[in-house]
Design a protein that fits this description.
Helix content is 37%, strand content 16%. It has 214 residues and is of the alpha+beta class. It has a single domain, classed as L-fuculose-1-phosphate Aldolase, CATH 3.40.225.10. Strands 4-3-2-1-5-8-7-6 form an 8-stranded mixed beta sheet, with helices on both faces. The longest helix is centred in the last third of the chain and has 24 residues.
């Protein structure tokens, strides 16, 4: 099988989305792109994350052709593929139906810099224009709204995030959901104070060297 390591990672983080309360049922999808062989591994359509087997993962090329796999790829496969076509900094993409992020997506309200951790995704999180799920229009809307960002809300739908690997893409989903919850609660009590662009730029730089370094 192609991309055996990536298949295991997709199954691991698919389950984690559910156990951490970041999506429900079969909602959401995950992918990884291998730049050496130009192939994308993506979760299959409509299968419970706890039922997906390694052989169920679908392998596609950059033209959207299935290279390996008997299952249908996620209906949002083009939304993943277009990111890899346009972004050299992203090798993993996750789409999820988070609760508070989707609240903002339904309101068509971007998440401003109300918390410094939003910097993991950029200066803010925009909302992509609405389009029917599984369409090229939705994929293109998401790609446009996610330019120079690592996450975007999909209007009346959910969230999309990308990073260099699944661990970091998952962390972005998790942090944006936390910040979305804080923002929604704060809005119910008053008007949140928004951090200036300069502070968010500083945070983005600090995050580049955050954590344990050798």
């Amino acid at each position: 099988m192609f991309m055996e390591k990536e298949r295991k990672e997709l199954i691991k983080y698919g389950k984690k989305l559910v156990t951490e309360g970041l999506t429900k049922g079969t909602g959401g999808n995950l992918s990884v792109f291998n730049r050496e062989n130009g192939l994308m591994a993506i979760t299959p359509s409509g299968i419970d994350f706890f039922e997906i087997k390694e052989e169920d993962i679908v392998i596609m090329d950059l033209e959207g052709q299935v290279v390996e796999g008997e299952k249908l790829p996620s209906s949002e496969w083009y939304m993943h593929l277009i990111q890899y076509q346009q972004r050299e900094d992203l090798d993993a993409v996750i789409h999820a139906h988070t609760t508070y992020g989707t609240v903002l997506a339904v309101l068509r309200e971007p998440l401003p810099a109300s918390h410094y951790m939003i910097a993991v995704a950029g200066k803010d999180v925009r909302v992509a224009e609405y389009a029917t799920y599984g369409t090229k229009e939705l994929a293109e809307n998401a790609a446009e709204a996610m330019k120079d960002r690592r996450a975007v809300f999909l209007a009346n739908h959910g969230i999309l995030a990308g990073a260099q690997d699944l661990l970091n893409a998952f962390n972005i989903i998790e942090e944006v959901e936390y910040c979305s919850k804080i923002y929604c609660v704060a809005k119910s009590m008053g008007e949140p104070i928004i951090l200036p662009d300069e502070e968010m730029e500083l945070m983005a730089e600090k995050f580049k060297t955050y954590g344990q370094r050798k």
